[in-house]
Amino acid sequence: MTDLPPFHIAFPVHDIAAARRFWGETMGCAEGRNAEDWVDFDFYGHQIVAHQAPGVIADGARGSNRVDGHDVPVPHFGVVLDMEAWKTLADRLTAAGIAFDIEPHIRFEGQPGEQATMFFRDPSGNAIEMKAFADRSNLFAAH
């Protein structure tokens, strides 16, 4: 697989201090530029920006789609890790007491797109999926 350009995503949070604790301490993302109401984080080489926007965070009611027997929250974002990094993160999140929307598990087991996945939320309710493939060439494998 070739090097990919880093993506950038900005997302709303209700509390910058809570975002710093979650993204910085729990997720282990280094902090970059910041101001009173926003902060950049290095999310596995990608730039994510938490913007304080309390009016945007609603009651948590969002959509979902059924995928391999689970209700996957929509919208969500995340990163595809190697399997070892995914397992390390799953262990770290479990030890930190993070509540999973979908517990760490293997999805599409035995199929071309088999992958490790987990879903959880930041303190503002933003859904995050972290996944890994034993063989990353299966990232876009069709069923």
Structural overview:
The chain has helices spanning 16-26, 83-95, and strands at 8-13, 30-35, 38-43, 46-52, 63-67, 70-74, 77-81, 100-107, 115-121, 127-132. A hairpin with a 7-residue loop joins β8 and β9 (115-121). The protein is globular, with a radius of gyration of 15 Å. The mean pLDDT is 90. A four-stranded mixed beta sheet has the order 1-4-3-2, covered by helices on one side. It has 143 residues and is an alpha+beta fold. The protein has a single domain (8-53, 63-138), classed as 2,3-Dihydroxybiphenyl 1,2-Dioxygenase, domain 1. Pfam families: Glyoxalase. This is Glyoxalase.
What is the helical fraction, as a range of percent? 10-25%
Order of helices and strands: EHEEEEEEHEEE
- Rg from Cα: 15 Å
Number of continuous helical runs = 2
CATH superfamily, by name, is 2,3-Dihydroxybiphenyl 1,2-Dioxygenase, domain 1
Mean pLDDT over the full residue set: 90
CATH class placement = Alpha Beta
Characterize the largest beta sheet: strand count, sense, and whether it forms a barrel. Answer: 4 strands, mixed
- Basic shape: globular
Number of domains: 1
Distance between the termini: 20 Å
Tally of DSSP β-strands: 10
* Low-confidence spans: none
Strand content: 35-45%
